């Protein structure tokens, strides 16, 4: 993808309670925008965003994970930086850190 102007960059977070489907939603976005060619499933330990061994074993997000995808809208290219956040209350600090850099969130 060519260089995208900063005015066409959006930072969004995926947030919700534990087991609401945050990582699953992020995996679908990555698939439908062509970043990955296979949808990783959380319950299989194959999710792209859950990269830590402990996350894969437990099937939950422990650390916020960031990725970038691209979207074309009205003949303009947009860079979308996505932060997949943990849902478990024990990892609330991770969510709070993410909020500082986001333009908006998707609440599931």
* pLDDT < 50 runs, ≥5 residues: none
Mean pLDDT: 84
CATH superfamily: P-loop containing nucleotide triphosphate hydrolases
CATH topology: Rossmann fold
H/E element order: EHHEEHE
Q: What value does the Rg take, in angstroms?
A: 14 Å
* The CATH C-level class name: Alpha Beta
Hey, roughly how much beta strand do the residues contain?
Answer: 25-35%
Number of domains: 1
What gross morphology would you assign?
globular
The secondary structure category is alpha/beta
Distance between the termini: 29 Å
Question: How would you portray this structure in words?
Answer:
With 108 residues, this protein is α/β, with parallel strands linked by helices. The protein has one domain (6-107): Rossmann fold. It has 3 helices and 4 strands, in the order βααββαβ. It has helices spanning 22-32, 53-58, 92-99, and strands at residues 9-15, 65-73, 76-84, 104-107. It has a 4-stranded mixed beta sheet with strand order 2-3-1-4, sandwiched between helices. Strand 2 and strand 3 (76-84) form a beta hairpin. The mean pLDDT is 84.
């Amino acid at each position: 993808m060519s260089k995208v102007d900063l005015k066409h960059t959006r930072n969004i977070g995926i947030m919700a309670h534990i087991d609401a489907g945050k990582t699953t939603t992020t995996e679908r976005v990555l698939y439908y925008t062509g970043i990955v060619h296979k949808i990783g499933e959380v319950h299989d330990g194959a999710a792209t965003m859950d990269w830590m061994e402990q996350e894969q074993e437990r099937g939950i997000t422990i650390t916020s994970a960031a990725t970038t995808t691209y979207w074309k809208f009205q003949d303009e290219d947009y860079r979308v930086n996505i932060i997949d956040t943990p849902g478990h209350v024990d990892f609330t600090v991770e969510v709070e850190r993410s909020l500082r850099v986001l333009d908006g969130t998707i609440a599931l």
